[in-house]
Amino acid sequence: MTNPKIKFAFLFFTFLSFLSYAQVKISGKIENNNQEPIENAAILLNPSDKATTSDASGEFTFNNITSGNYKVSILVLGYKKLIQEIEVKNVDLNLNFTIEVDVLNLESVVITGTFDPRLSLESSTSISVLNQKDIQQNYPQGTASLLQNISGTFTDTSAGEVYTKVYTRGISASAEDDMGWYYVSLQEDGLPVSLIQHSYYSPDLFQRADLMTERVEAIRGGSSAITAMNAPGGIYNFKSRGIQQEFGGQIQASRGFQGGDNAMERIDAVLSGSFGNDWFFNIGGHYRRDDGARDADFKFSKGGQLKFNIIKKTDKGSFKFYGKFLDDYTNRYTGVAATNWDNPTAAFGQDFRNTSLLMPDFDGSIPDGRNLANNGKINFNPSQGVYAKDIAFGFDFSREFGNNWSIKNNLKYSSKKANWQTSISNAFVSLSNPLAYFITGAQFPVGQIVFNDAQSGAEVARVDNSGILTGQPFQYISGSLPNDAIMGTSAWYKDNNSDEFMNQLILRKKTKKHDINLGSSLGYANTTHFTSGTFGFVTYEPSPRMLAVTLENPGQPTIALSDSNGLSNYGGLFFVNAEAKVLQLAAFANDRWSISDKIHLDLGLRYETINHKGSKDRFAPFSQNGGIDGNATTDYDNGVLTSTGDQDNFDYNYKYLSYSAAINYKVDENTAIFGRFSKGNKAPELNYYFNNFSNVPINQKGTIQKVIQTEVGLKLNAKQFAFTGTAFWSKLKDVGIANFEFDDSNNSIFYTPILFNSSDTYGFEWESVYTPFNFWKFSFNGVLQNPKATDWKIYDAAGSVDTSDDSVIDYSGNTLPFNPKLMFNLGTDFQKNKVSAFLKWQYLGKRQGNVANGFELASYSVFNFGTGYKINKNLSANLMVTNLFNSDGLANFFGDNSFGANANGATPEFVAANPDDSFIVFPVLRRRLLLKLNYSF
């Protein structure tokens, strides 16, 4: 009889031999429809629970796989999920997969507007995604310019790269030109670019897109009420590059031209890869020099940024250290004069395409009203424009624990500086208007006024204004000024600094039916703010010149009404010196409840508290005979506004509860419908304190605005057609409105009392892509809406500080201004073999220029075109033209062409009574051409 031990050993080794024979290797390659390899695709093999990623050649390998039936799942950003069943026998397998582009990213995992990563198709939000290709098809003109490609997003980029407006669904009332991002959160990698906003200090100052930007995720309204910090109107999240398995990068050199010979040069670069033991890195940025889209005598933009991240991937999570260094100069355009209210035409020799009306380059020195005791000076040169500096570092940490618990924490520290040296306003001021002389701060500048070219010193004109106080027009003694006028403008100096810290912590628990997220957000900002305004004597012509101005009455001493650069009334127009600390805390909870495989309920709450604590200096004109320099013949330094030593303090808390509820029904693997109701809140920003309460106690806090939104949406992802559509209703309540006014009786600037208003907007936004062939697609997105100023009143100060003639005007029921009833993007995109091309039509419908509905901005279209050729494996060239046909559309309206006027002053009655008046508009930027050479390795 056989020994049992020998028999067992025989069977054991036979079994091991069988296992050895049965364990095979599965290898494969992943390509897209253009036979291009796909890197970083996630490949899952079930039920083995094994996972891997594809390399730069699109190849992957699984080792030691036993015989059986499996499902291979392939997930990659920007492509549709692919699931294929395979049978493993006793031989190695070599598989090839072709995956289709996910044209609307409905099967991509999104993190914006949710507390947990989920597929866009399964998300109960109106979300849009721009990938790297979308980003590269845009002229590098700033953040808002890129976002106008997103469905339902209104953007105004007519002033340039900054000083832009972005909003959706009629949530716009406080999103004014100097605070155009009021309701939305501009984010980088899940945290706000900046925690605070106030006049001329918006997050677009500190954000630039380049090759380090992997994609943009955008949420319109809805869940932003519970997922964003004080931003119920939407989220625009710029995500940086993530894990790259193979070492490689790109270098991109760009050369552009705008209009005639205005040049732009830019270089972008990025380098990515790994350095062993699951460590990965990305580093990149850009540098540019830009003459600008309109004519100026200086470089309009220059500078750039550097960004990086270092990622450690572990079995249970990941850790990322990231940073940014931005050092950039840019500028913003002021408006252009027009006549003919019904069909605006450029006036006074100006041009909708070329005129900028900015002060020319010069080096000035202005007394610093904060520090006159130590002879403090402000160096002013309008060629600097807006200098933005941002140094930021952060840590993003995630880890999974047992029993389906996980934690994620993202924190960031940043130090920001924004310094404005540019001009504000460019109004027509007739030489017959007393303002042309009395704004200098001089007591009686009456008689012979001499205007000299500040650069050459040559006399340009000599006028007699001796009848000005009795209503008589001026008389030329010699020479003349263009258009018999000067420009009502100010040397605008602002100095803002802010140190900010923010953190978001999310604790997640998954059960069979629930995905619960609990967390907190913390934000702290310590900021200082200074604004000074100095009048500038400038010619009123398309290429303005500075004027040195004197009063030269016979037999009397010559009085200098300006310095040698043309600056007058030093620091006498504006003075704000303030500091503030902002502490923002929030706690939130969200549950995604799987009622069934097809139905998910999404419930979320957010309790937020914000504390504003700070002070604002009181001010008064510097009182000394002869002004700052003690010289009675220099009138330009007699009215410097300076701190009195007294301060008005504020310390207010804002507390509110926001909530959102949604349901998602997945009809099938390619179709879902959802509904959502949200109630959000918007606490005041710091401009409430900085702009109001001039030399009076800050004795009341601002009002929290309410944002209520209801939406119902459909998401469809068929083989050749993808579509999302959302019907919405949004209501904005308790909107405080105050206007900027100028009192020409005493040359003072003030804000009117605040009135509270509300608006309603109904609409439908959509996004669709049709792909008849894998190399050719058509896209169409936009919004159709009806924006109404439901309950709206405006305070009319009648042009003076005196309240006896004031009144309140009721505009309830009018169309909400600056919200088109129709806007869309229609485009086609072709890519086959080595050739690519695209054509886009951007349409913006009619918009009311103010709540009085006194002036309507006409609709306009802009066409963008691009083509590219892949020269070899590494090198490609692209040509892109923005505003192909040089469209002359008008994007914005600033009201009557007079110093201190605003859009609300152009009522129907005013327009009817002043048919020949000129007014200020902002035309769209002219044609821009860009050639790009891209080297990838």
Automatic annotation (TrEMBL):
Q: Does the keyword Signal apply?
A: yes
Q: Where is this chain primarily localised?
A: membrane
Question: Superkingdom, according to UniProt?
Answer: Bacteria
Q: How does it sit in the membrane?
A: Multi-pass membrane protein
Domain TonB-dependent receptor-like beta-barrel intervals: 329-884
What does UniProt give as GO cellular component?
A: cell outer membrane
Q: Which UniProt keywords apply?
A: Cell outer membrane, Ion transport, Iron, Iron transport, Membrane, Receptor, Signal, TonB box, Transmembrane, Transmembrane beta strand, Transport
Q: Which Pfam families match?
A: CarbopepD_reg_2, Plug, TonB_dep_Rec_b-barrel
Signal peptide annotation: 1-22
PANTHER family recorded: CATECHOLATE SIDEROPHORE RECEPTOR FIU, FERRICHROME IRON RECEPTOR-RELATED
- According to UniProt, the name of this protein is TonB-dependent receptor
